[in-house]
Design goal:
nucleotide-binding, Taurine-transporting ATPase, AAA+_ATPase, disordered C terminus, ATP binding
């Protein structure tokens, strides 16, 4: 097993903080005490890599939308980098299972896209284009796409497209990267290659990462801490710190210690499938509305695809 790589000293103040967060998708559901996620309490350290696992439909993606400001909580508060979340964050980057690259743009131009539409980069783009292009080329080279800058998405494999998507999410040098099943559609060999790519990017820069995945091996290989969510309404019921030393190579996935953690997490998720919803005393929102200090619920936006959600997250 490899020797541990020292982790830089982290700030005592959490980078991500959820304090008794509940979310109902609209006022009608709120009045009926029907929640997508409930009583979420979480503190994530500066530079920490966490993974969220749980049954399908448990609220993992909803948690991601809350984290990046695409959804506002019905009650409770969310702080990112010490600041209350009041709308889409500019300090985060997002990547999804579908790469969502624009087919009429080259790989380089796809990676540059956030800088063309996000302030303050947008107003500086014309004057600093060469600088931004060099930044994009370095990112592409770091994920094995050097020389692919002029290729169009349809000329790239699925794994290459996903690498480009991650570069696009990092081009504005965010403090936090959110990944929603980014490798789920790829074959096993490509998926493991991208685990190593993401590992290397994170170890080089130490931005915060929140990874949503159904792949327990992926979560254990990449994360410092794995959180298990219950079935809907989702809440965190297990926090599992991963003590496996870094840097982790793929060989570690075949060791007894690694497989034991995977089986442990699988057992937690299997047990949760039959767990009844919890309604702690005093935690129900008031009927018909909010009390002072609670965020207003927002209507559910149906039909919001990955690219549109990504675009909304970087426009503000």
């Amino acid at each position: 097993m490899p020797e541990a790589t020292p982790t830089p000293a982290a700030s005592d103040k959490p980078f991500v903080e959820f304090d008794q967060v509940w979310l109902a998708y609209n006022d009608e559901l709120l009045a009926q005490n029907v929640f997508a996620v409930e009583d979420i309490n979480l503190q994530v350290k500066q530079g920490e890599f966490i993974a969220i696992v749980g049954p399908s439909g448990c609220g993992k993606s909803t948690f991601m939308k809350l984290t990046t400001g695409l959804k506002m909580p019905s009650m409770g508060r969310i702080l990112i980098d010490g600041q209350p979340v009041t709308g889409p964050l500019k300090i985060s980057g997002m990547a999804f299972q579908a790469p969502s690259l624009l087919p009429w743009r080259t790989t380089l131009d796809n990676v540059l896209l956030p800088l063309e539409i996000v302030e303050p980069y947008r107003s500086q783009f014309k004057d600093r284009r060469k600088e931004y292009e060099e930044r994009a080329k370095k990112l592409l080279a770091s994920v094995g796409l050097g020389g692919m800058e002029k290729k169009f998405p349809w000329e790239l494999s699925g794994g290459m497209q996903q690498r480009a998507s991650i570069c696009r999410a990092l081009i504005h040098e965010p403090k936090m990267l959110l990944l929603d099943e980014p490798f789920g559609a790829l074959d096993a060999f490509t998926r493991e290659e991208l685990w190593c790519t993401l590992r290397d990017l994170w170890e080089a820069q130490r931005f915060n990462v929140i990874l949503v995945t159904h792949d327990l091996r992926e979560s254990v290989f990449l994360a410092d801490t794995v959180y298990c969510m219950s079935k809907s309404p989702g809440r965190f019921v297990v926090k599992r710190e991963i003590e496996i030393p870094r840097t982790r190579d793929l060989e570690v996935t075949y060791t007894p210690g690694f497989t034991d953690i995977v089986h442990e997490l699988r057992g937690h998720i299997g047990a949760m499938r039959g767990a009844p919803p919890r309604r702690p005393d005093g935690r129900h929102p008031p009927e018909g509305g909010n009390t002072c200090g609670l965020a207003k619920p927002v209507p559910r936006c149906s039909g919001l695809g990955p690219w549109h959600a990504y675009r909304i997250s970087i426009l503000k």
